[in-house]
Amino acid sequence: MPATDLTLLLSAAQAAGDVAMRHFKTDPQVWDKADDQGPVTEADFAVNALLADRLRSARPAYGWLSEESPDDGARLGTQRQFVVDPIDGTRAFIAHSLDWAIALAVIEDRRVIAGVVTLPARGLTYAAAYGQGATLNGQLLCVTQTRDPATAQVLTTRPNLAARHWQGGAPPAFATAFRSSLAYRMCLVAEGRYDAMLTLRPSWEWDIAAGALIVTEAGGHATDRTGADLLFNAAHPQVNGVIAGGGVHPALRAALS
Predict the structure, then answer these.
(1) Residue 194 neighbours by CB under 8 Å, 6+ apart
(2) What is the model's pTM?
(3) 27: annotated binding-site residue?
(4) Where do the annotations place Mg(2+) binding (predicted)?
(5) What percent of the chain clears pLDDT 90, i.e. is strictly above it?
(6) 42 marked ligand binding residue
(7) At the top level of CATH, which class does the domain 2-140 belong to?
């Protein structure tokens, strides 16, 4: 059941956070991924190894998708899957910023049924199971009900504000902010600290799966850039951008071209 999976994810996230913190601010070895996919550190690999051992040994029938593991496609034939980002926000981790996260999710029938996003350096753990609400360190979360994009606070990046993306050639005059981790951005929306987040680039499943459930269980919406439902465990594990928000989500979607 989802609650059992959530308990497993929480336990694994705690252990993974301990491993990551042993590497944090120690300047671990860094490599550049192929195809301009960004940096990866020995901490990413160490966390990935721990999670693979903990989660796959506990649920050997579940498929596996991780940013730091080769994807052989075997997950496509399984009923449930783990979707894992060992360190979301590796650049922040390297820069000694606190804004990196570990994101874990369980998928069933292409939907997220359990998710955890933990920020060990901040002492924050966001969690949700389908139909059971979302929490931060055990306290229930709720999105904001702001409806006017012009008065909203939105987590996004400058390229998403380009005229070509918006009806009328310009975005609404919302205030913007940034965090390195996509998973953390989604959780901040679930927490009600920001009204929405959006990214218009193709987004990897491991960055957004856990956060998508946390937002929706906090009463919000998480869709692709067209407003379509987010579906996971795709053969090519990317979605067409992400809009996550509370009351402002429909208006933000309508404002996009």
Answers:
(1) 144, 153, 154, 155, 177, 185, 188
(2) 0.96
(3) no
(4) 67, 85, 87-88, 207
(5) 95
(6) no
(7) alpha beta
Any idea which fold 149-255 has?
A: D-Maltodextrin-Binding Protein; domain 2 (3.40.190)
Return all residues near 175 (Cβ < 8 A) that are at least 6 apart: 152, 153, 154
Strand arrangement, sheet containing 80-88: 63-66, 80-88, 101-108, 111-119, 124-129, 134-136, 139-140
Looking at residue 28, its pLDDT comes to 92
Q: Is the pLDDT of residue 125 over 50?
A: yes
**Which of 81, 140, 88 is CA-nearest to residue 118?**
88
Query: In which residue ranges of the chain is CATH 3.40.190.80 found?
Result: 149-255
pLDDT surpassing 90 at residue 206: yes
Q: Is 32 annotated as a binding residue?
A: no
User: What is the secondary structure of 133-183 as a DSSP string?
Assistant: -EEETTEE--------GGG-EEE--GGGG-GGGBGGGS----EEE--S-HH
